[in-house]
Design goal:
Strand content: under 5%
Distance between the termini: 64 Å
Strand order of the largest sheet: 2-3-1-4-6-5
Helix content: 55-70%
Shape: globular
Number of domains: 2
Radius of gyration: 27 Å
Length: about 625
């Protein structure tokens, strides 16, 4: 089969990009006006906090460049809104976010979707440069319909933007190897630097850049070595200058430097200890924060298990047909290796190896989207070769194309699901209509979004005013609470206490609610928000009216498993709640043709003489009767 013409290619690519855009924008309203993916609010709030004039993110698990991109976009949104009369000041802008964060999420999600489209375009360019237009079209098609890529492109996370800058760095690296222009290798270093300032993954690109510069080592001579070395050091300088410019506080802030360089120091310390035969069983506090590996516990069996776990996640995101084609493509490429193909393949293999070594057995689809373009190109390579062999058997060729589109079905199914209304939004509307304002509520984190009462907020402001103004989660927290205080005026608000589960801990050292303020805890969450849960009786004695819980939390503790054993206080509370509290209302996805968890509203038991149980917006006997008429058992 001959290669596609330029005219045909433009038509095909336009259709593919249109399809890709629809798949990525379809469903970006999920959860509106809220986000039930905590990381999204994390990025949005930090981007908005830059409006205070403090551009230090104070948190470095992720570099800040993507936050700066969002900050710029929100700045444009602020100017447009001010011209349109939507708000008059920065304070009004902040209050509008608290009242309705939906537009801020949509802006961020569209941005991520746009980066996702950019990844497809650059993947096309790489495949065209390495092979031909036909291979490029199929590479773009495979990536466009990939379930994993479609899923991750709908959330405000740094994975897709990082993938864009990384694959752009690869593209210029291939151009350098094809044409030998210094400008191309420097641009490769530039985009690797931007990618690393977006998410640390892109730093792996320094390895392919180094290999590309010293590729002709077999023709070694002193002049070549000096020339290659100069380019190498120039690329390193450019990489770190760009990294610094795009995320300066990774170098300026002591905590940023620790996050940026600390992992390498800790990892090297562990390697030295292992070589000397010393134990590395005890993790220091800074080691926990850096999330470095415990080298003494790594075994060949664990690595093998981690490998298959990693492949399993790739299968969820790309599909078995694409993975098989990709593996076949790799085998075929090995037979025709050249410098461009070697450097192209080096990043995904190094990235996979590092991921499996550092976190064997742990992988998520979003962590892998950075290698999807490489998989798509390899799969398209074998696919086009097979099609070339099938020119006499058109029916088989058509079957292959249909099989290639199987992931499209998964992407459509996912979009249909995520577009449904969330049970937590349905529960919110019911609560605000039926439960009196100022009622004392106990809420699961990550559940129904309700406004806190002013008295509730005032207590938190006192704590925030005395907190560390440069803390990772306490910087600007007082200002945020004051805007929240303004936003709650004339709103339906409640006296809210959250059940906060310390997910970052291996187990609880003791039960009950308390402040977690070790360095490790402060690195993982806001130390001003207590964590843990008390027993059922405590909440009755302290005047709580209702508990609003959801299955994403309580399902982990209502049965015997690792979580219920490690966190017995949570198991005890949910068990007592389900056994003793009257169930007021249940919201299931099936009942409302919705998505999300099962949300249950329980009323804390009171004595019959306790009139405070009549909190619903009904009166007298009618209220008490209705309370049980809408109970679900």
């Amino acid at each position: 089969m001959a290669d596609y013409t330029a005219s045909d290619t433009r038509k095909f690519l336009s259709i593919i990009l249109l399809c890709a855009g629809v798949l990525r924008l379809w469903g970006i309203w999920h959860g509106y006006p809220y986000s039930y993916y905590p990381d999204e609010a994390h990025f949005v709030k930090r981007a908005l906090s830059f409006g205070s004039g403090d551009l230090n993110p104070h948190w470095f698990h992720k570099p800040a460049f993507f936050m700066y991109v969002l900050f710029f976009e929100y700045g444009v949104f602020f100017v447009i809104g001010k011209i349109a009369g939507m708000w008059e000041s920065v304070g009004g802008f902040a209050v509008s976010y608290i009242k309705n964060p939906g537009p801020f999420y949509i802006i961020g999600r569209i941005t991520v979707a746009a980066f996702g489209m950019g990844v497809i375009v650059v993947t096309y360019l790489i495949s065209k440069t390495l092979f031909n237009r036909k291979n490029a079209v199929f590479s773009a098609l495979i990536l466009a319909v990939s379930v994993g890529h479609v899923m991750v492109a709908k959330d405000i996370k740094a994975d897709i933007p990082c993938a864009f800058f990384t694959i752009l760095s690869v593209y210029f690296l291939i151009l350098y190897l094809k044409f030998g222009r210094t400008r191309s290798i420097l641009l490769s270093a530039v985009f690797a630097g931007i990618g690393t300032a977006t998410k640390y993954y892109s730093i792996v690109m320094l390895a392919p850049i180094s290999v590309a510069l010293f590729w002709n080592f077999r023709n070694y001579n002193k002049q070549f070595f000096i020339y290659a070395s100069k380019r190498f050091f120039l690329c390193i300088i450019v990489f770190y200058l760009v990294y610094f410019f795009c995320s300066p506080y990774n170098f300026i802030d002591p905590l940023g430097r620790k996050e940026t360089f600390g992992k390498f120091l800790i990892l090297s310390e562990k390697v030295v200890k292992v070589v000397k035969g010393e134990s590395t069983d005890e993790l220091r506090e800074d080691e926990k924060i850096a999330e470095s590996i415990d080298a003494s516990k790594i075994s060949p069996q664990l690595i093998i298990k981690g490998f298959f776990s990693y492949i399993g996640e790739l299968n969820k995101g790309m599909g078995s047909i694409v993975l098989i084609l990709s593996f076949l493509g790799l085998v075929l490429l090995v037979r025709n290796l050249n410098s461009a193909i070697v450097c192209f393949l080096l990043f995904p293999f190094l990235f996979m190896g590092i991921s499996i070594l550092i976190h064997p057995g742990y992988a998520e689809i979003r962590h892998q989207v950075i290698i999807y373009p490489f998989i798509a190109v390899a799969a398209a390579y074998s696919f086009t070769l097979i099609l070339d062999k099938m020119t006499a058997y058109h029916q088989i060729g058509y079957i292959l194309i249909v099989l290639l589109l199987v992931p499209l079905y998964g992407s459509v199914q996912y979009n249909m699901s995520i577009s449904k209304k969330d049970t937590r939004n349905i529960a919110k509307a019911w609560i605000e209509k039926n439960i009196s304002p100022e009622s004392r509520l106990l809420l699961d984190e990550g559940g129904v979004e309700l406004m806190m009462s002013r008295s509730n907020i005032e207590k938190n402001i006192v704590k925030a005013d005395n907190a560390d103004k440069k803390g990772q989660f306490t910087a600007h927290y007082d200002t945020y609470l004051k805007y929240q205080f303004d936003a709650v005026k004339d709103a339906v608000a409640y006296d809210i206490t959250y059940i906060r589960f310390p997910w970052w801990r291996d187990s609880e050292d003791k039960g009950g609610v308390r402040i977690l303020d070790s360095e490790f805890d402060k690195d993982m969450g806001n130390p001003l928000i207590p964590a843990g849960v008390e027993n059922y009786g405590y909440y009755i004695q302290n005047g709580f009216d209702y508990a609003v819980v959801h299955s994403y939390k309580y399902n982990s503790f209502l049965k015997e498993n690792a979580a219920s054993k490690k966190f017995p206080s949570f198991k005890r509370f949910y068990t007592e709640l389900f056994q003793n509290a009257p169930l007021v209302k249940t919201f299931t996805p099936e009942s409302y043709n919705a998505k999300g968890p099962v949300v249950k509203i329980f009323r804390f038991s009171r004595k019959k003489s306790d009139k405070s149980s009549a909190d619903l917006n009904f009166s007298g006997i009618a209220h008490l009767c209705s309370l049980y008429s809408f109970s679900d058992n």
